[in-house]
Every structure is written in structure tokens, then in C-alpha cells.
Amino acid sequence: MTHPLRIGIWALVHGNRAALNDPEEPYDASWRRNRGLVLEAESLGYDCVLVAQHTMNPHRTDLGQLEAWTASAALAAETSRIEIIAAIKPMLYHPVVLAKMALQIEEISGGRFAINLVNAWNRKEIEDAGLVFREHDERYAYGAEWLEVVERLMRGEEVQHQGRYFQVKDYVLRPAARGRARPRIYVGGESPPARDLVAARADVWFINGQPLEDVQALIADVRARPRQGEPVRFGLSTFVIARETEEEAQAEYRRLLDLAAQDAEIKAYVKANTDPAVAMRKTQAKFQSVGTNGGTAAGTVGSYDQVAARLAAFHAAGIDTLLTQFQPFEREMRRFAENVMPRLAHLRAA
Ligand SMILES: Cc1cc2nc3c(=O)[nH]c(=O)nc-3n(C[C@H](O)[C@H](O)[C@H](O)COP(=O)(O)O)c2cc1C
Fold first, then answer.
1. Is 83 inside any structural domain?
2. Start and end of every Luciferase-like domain (predicted)?
């Protein structure tokens, strides 16, 4: 069954998505900006917002960084329709505390809250806090047990759990979710253990931006893994550059590529802090692109018609949530809503 296509945005938790120094988009990761961005996205018809989680700015520690969970709670109170998805790195919060926070934001939002489990790449962020940065596959073993506890608590179950990492006794959280079983669970990560976790416990898998054939292969891989319950659903991150003509879009792509080249020092710093085992890094290295999490590698640079057709092809392949990035964000988000969304609706109707 194909679900309707939902379109979301990345909140600007650490400012610009493609290049840090852009005269057209001064650095700003403040609450004030993000609040305005999300309220506008909601009024333009966007369906969800992902609030990524980083405690320290991963690019430059002297730059501001929006805190995901407190900001998500505030966004929940200020908005009325958009789904709010807060990222969570399991090693940062005990599952009981996190499940309680998730249920609180579920109540504030009136049933529009979701978590996105991400198993971390930034060794420095974790180790400098004095926390344990486990090796890649062990992070997934920890994350799977963590999510099992969180899932049952978010469902309102009384939890008894004696595991390898967590011992929880007679725990029950109230108020439970109303009108549905629990907040939605997304997972962002691409490695084989990430795919197992998705098949076992996620509602939606967020895939890094990449060409259609690669995405089709990833979807087939996850669909073939053991699963109980509803079929898993799929989301894709993509950086969009859309213009009236393909030439104009390519010119803007080159402008952003040139600006991104000025971030070489930042990229080297990020690379030095990144766990070399993470799949995201390998995917990102395969393609020339701008933006994070695959950036434009899904082929979303082109005319309005080309971009709409490409996104419709991903939808036909099983992607039902698109998570968009732009730069400068607000201007391009409006352009997309005005020019690409109607074309997409038209293609879907056809
Ligand atoms: C849609 C999406 C969102 C992500 N958000 C975050 C985030 O908020 N914080 C973070 O540290 N990593 C984030 N990540 C990166 C994951 O932490 C990263 O993919 C991790 O290394 C998982 O390992 P794997 O890709 O090897 O499975 C995100 C990844 C995706 C696909």
C-alpha cells in the first residue's frame, strides 16, 4: 500500500545546511529563527519537522546550537498541525527519562510527536562529556535494548526489564498517549545493524539522500528482514535546488559548491571526530553533493518539473516522507512550496 507523500523540513539546529559562510544566509541557529521557520513551514503545507540532536555544534564549537528536546517541546506548544520529530542519541538519556519526556511532548502537541533514534557518529560530543562511546555495532545493541524499553513505556505498559544495559522494575508512565498507542518511532542510520533495528522496532526508516536505484535496493533489503506488525515505512532526506530552468538550478548548485569548498577546514575537523565505521560517511563520500545526509545525491537539482518528477519517482518506489533541506532555507522553502508542491500534487493525481 502506498501512503500519501508527506513533505518535511530539517530544523536549522546548526545553521546553514550546505555551506557555512553564505552572504545570502547569515549564520543563525537561534530559537527565534527556528520558531519562525517551523511556523511558516506549517502554514505553507509542510507536514513534519526533524529537530536533529547535537549538544555541541559539530562544525565549530564557538557557534550556537539549538537544543532538540526543549525546542521540540516549545514547538509543540506553538504549532497546531505539523508533526514534530526530535532526534535522540540513546547514550545521552536513560530510557525512562526519555520516554517520560516523549509522552509529555505528545500531550503538549495533541498527538503530533515522534522520536528519531540516531546512533551517533561524533565521538568527541560523547567522549568529551565523559560518556562512553561504544563501538559501532555495540551502539546498536545498546540502542535496540534502549528502544525496547522506551517503546513499551511510551505505550503505557507497566515495564519489568532485566537486560544487559538496563534494569527497570514496576515502571509505568502517565499520562499515556491519547488517541493512538504511542508517539511514532523513526530511525536514522544505514548500516546493517541499523536496518535490523528498523525492521524490528521502527515505524519509519529515514534514508540518507542517494540515487533512486540505491534507495530501491535499501528498501528491498529492509523489507526482507524479519518484522512483526505493520510494514515499515520509508523516508528520504534530500537537499533541493529547484528553479524555473535546469540551467538556473545548476548555476545555483555551483554557487553552493564553491561556498562549500571554503569549509574544508570544518570538514576535516568533522571527519577527525567521526567514527569511521558509520555507514553515513561512506554514502556521503560516494557522491558529489551539497547538504548533509546525502545532500543533493538523490538528484534533486533541476527545473521545477524535473524535481517534481524525481520526487514522484521516489514516492512510487516506496518513500512516503521527504525531509527537505534548502539554502538559504526560508526563501527556498517558500519557492518549493509555491512551485514544486503543486506540480507534485498534479503528478500524484495523474
Ligand atoms: C535522517 C537522519 C537524521 C539524523 N540525525 C542525526 C542527529 O540528529 N544527530 C546525530 O548525531 N546524528 C544524526 N544522524 C546520523 C546518525 O547518527 C548516523 O547515521 C549514525 O552514524 C548511524 O550509524 P550508521 O549510519 O552507521 O547506521 C542522522 C541520520 C539520518 C539518516
1. yes
2. 14-320
